[in-house]
TrEMBL record:
The species this protein was found in: Flectobacillus roseus
Subcellular compartments: Cell outer membrane
Family: Belongs to the SusD family.
Gene3D superfamilies xrefs: 1.25.40.390
Segments forming domain SusD-like N-terminal: 103-227
Protein name (Swiss-Prot/TrEMBL): RagB/SusD family nutrient uptake outer membrane protein
Keyword Lipid metabolism: no
Keyword annotations: Cell outer membrane, Membrane, Signal
Superkingdom, taxonomy of origin: Bacteria
UniProt signal peptide: 1-23
Record field: transmembrane: none
């Protein structure tokens, strides 16, 4: 049996934090603090609890699955479910209609859940610091792990809200209430980066237990942060400069990851989406989930629990997260096996005749195509909950088969013990490629992008129907040096990221980072609403909709210390 850090998960039961009016400074009754846990064994439990916290989101307060904030909010997917009124707050997010933030429990609950995870890190950091290295030989490593975890949560908050308060384990309860969210973009990025740098400087390259952060994971995460930081924004979120020094840091950090030899692309992209092949060569850092661990239902991912086919008898709920027609069309390839950058969305793809990128059938449930690699139960349009509103496509990457040992049904909702990848090697390759392109060294980006495309072209082994044929006509080829200008390379990189991470959530944040969210999403809406009339009132407003509003409850609690984001 693989040894995970959550073998000590029972400790986290003592540390559960409930929702409250003040997510920054709250001690639930009966919960132990760092002052109550002074032995090395107890402190180890606090560290484990901090790892657990990064997976402690929920369906209406997600903190790791970005199907709402990054996929539905982009051009990748529609909300789905039983019409626009079903979990209407996601419909508001899809329409960029969050101008009344006080009513948005999603936005508020995600903020609170992320700060709970930060609080657990700070509690554990204080406890670890109270011990000597003689009594606690793992002290330096655990401090570095906790700062990595804290940086992860702050990074997530930064992507979602931009203007956030940042404090460390040394801040008292009174001091926390005096920390504003008015740091400059550069200052806040650098504060988060300092935690990742500490992790790089103090973590080993390998850990004895699965799930623990290591030095290479910290290098990959700092590279991701510096890539976002390189695209410098003004106060209304416009990209005004691309910092070449930060891009070179991305190149150096990703090269350290690549040169380590610890990670590589899996042979089939499907390996990233199956519980049976989790923690493989491509997974750099993942939230670890468990099942059959002695608890009632295991430690499961329920954040994606609404997103199973509604009409399929093996599931039964709830039909959310429907891939958009735009995304399906984007998988079409031309006679050279390359994307149709400028014409892909002129008309709806004919899936019976068009050649497509194989990643389509790893991503989208399509009538008659194997669903989640099970050709004995092909996807059926009868499984779709509200085709009249959202069409017939269904998401698939985050779902697991009902026959999987990782699958668990709790009432109407589905959970899975499949780990949730935060950092993958494909992301590292494409981060480095992006940095090279923006540095004007696009020739160095070409083989990196082609590695990912080559793997995509070879990822067809699990896609055959029961009769041994393929449901789609696959054709993906690598780019050549001909015409590989910076502008073309940038377009190819942006396209590749969409295909490689489709419906996984990065899409919206990529568009914001590149400074193209407004033109891309309004062009998407203007075309898509001719296919899906529920989008008639949708409109992306530049200078506002790049980020979520600061929850009004938090502004009220801090007596106006927190300032609202522009436009809200």
């Amino acid at each position: 049996m693989k040894r995970k850090i959550f073998s000590l998960l029972f400790v986290t039961g003592l540390l559960t934090m409930n929702s409250c009016k003040d997510a920054l400074d709250y001690t639930p009754k009966g919960v132990l603090s760092s002052s109550d846990l002074t032995s090395p064994t107890a402190v180890e439990g606090l560290v484990t609890a901090a790892y657990a916290a990064i997976g402690n989101g929920d369906m209406i307060g997600p903190i790791y699955s970005n199907w709402v904030y990054g996929s539905v909010r982009s051009d990748d997917a529609y909300k789905g479910g039983g019409g626009t009124g079903d979990v209407g707050e996601i419909d508001a997010i899809e329409h960029y209609n969050l101008v009344t933030p006080s009513i948005n429990s999603f936005v508020t609950r995600t903020w609170q859940n992320l700060f709970k995870s930060i609080s657990r890190c700070n509690v554990a950091l204080r406890a670890v610091n109270s011990l000597s290295e003689a009594s606690y030989p793992n002290k330096k490593t655990r401090l570095a792990e906790l700062r990595f975890l804290r940086a992860h949560s702050y990074f997530t908050m930064k992507l979602l809200y931009k203007n956030i308060p940042i404090f460390d384990e040394n801040a008292s309860a009174e001091e926390i209430l005096k920390v504003s969210n008015s740091l400059s973009n550069e200052e806040s990025w650098n504060k988060i980066a300092a935690d990742f740098q500490f992790a790089i400087d103090n973590l080993p390259s390998s850990q004895p237990e699965l799930g623990r952060a290591n030095k290479v994971a910290a290098q990959a995460y700092l590279a991701k942060l510096r890539l976002y930081q390189a695209y410098e924004q003004n106060e209304t979120h416009q990209v005004v400069n691309i910092n070449k020094t930060r891009l070179q840091e991305v190149v150096n950090l990703t090269q350290a990851v690549i040169s380590s030899g610890k990670y590589s692309l899996s042979k089939d992209i499907a390996d990233n989406f199956l519980a049976e092949t989790e923690n493989g060569s491509e997974s750099i850092f993942a939230i670890q989930f468990t099942i059959n661990d002695g608890t009632t239902s295991g430690r499961l991912n329920f954040e994606d629990g609404l997103n199973y086919p509604h009409g399929a008898p093996q599931y039964g709920c709830c039909g959310f997260h429907a891939p958009s027609q735009n995304l399906v069309n984007a998988h079409a390839t031309d006679e050279n096996g390359l994307p149709k950058f400028d014409t892909f969305n002129d008309s709806n793809i004919d899936l019976n005749t068009a050649t497509v990128d194989p990643r389509l059938d790893h991503t989208v449930g399509i009538d008659g195509h194997p669903y989640k690699y099970d050709n004995t139960k092909p996807f059926s349009n009868s499984w779709v909950r509200d085709a009249g509103v959202y069409g017939n496509f269904h998401s698939m990457r985050a779902q697991q088969l009902a026959s999987s040992s990782s699958y668990f049904k709790l009432g109407p909702f589905m959970g899975t013990a499949k780990n949730y990848d935060i950092l993958r090697y494909d992301d590292v390759l494409l981060m480095q490629a992006e940095a090279y392109i923006e540095l004007g060294q696009q020739a160095s980006a070409l083989p990196l992008i082609n590695q990912v495309r080559k793997r995509a072209s070879e990822s067809t082994g699990r896609l055959k129907k029961a009769d041994g044929t393929f449901a789609s006509k696959y054709l993906v080829k690598e780019y050549t040096t001909t015409g590989w200008t910076q502008a073309y390379a940038r377009k190819a990189l942006q396209w590749e990221r969409r295909m490689e991470f489709a419906t996984e959530g990065p899409r919206f944040f990529d568009l914001v980072r590149w400074g193209i969210a407004e033109p891309t999403l309004n062009a998407y809406i203007n075309k898509e609403k001719t296919r899906r009339t529920f989008l008639n009132t949708a409109k992306f407003t530049a200078g506002r909709d790049e980020y979520l509003p600061i929850p009004q409850a938090e502004i009220t609690f801090t007596n106006g210390l927190y300032k609202q984001n522009p436009g809200y």
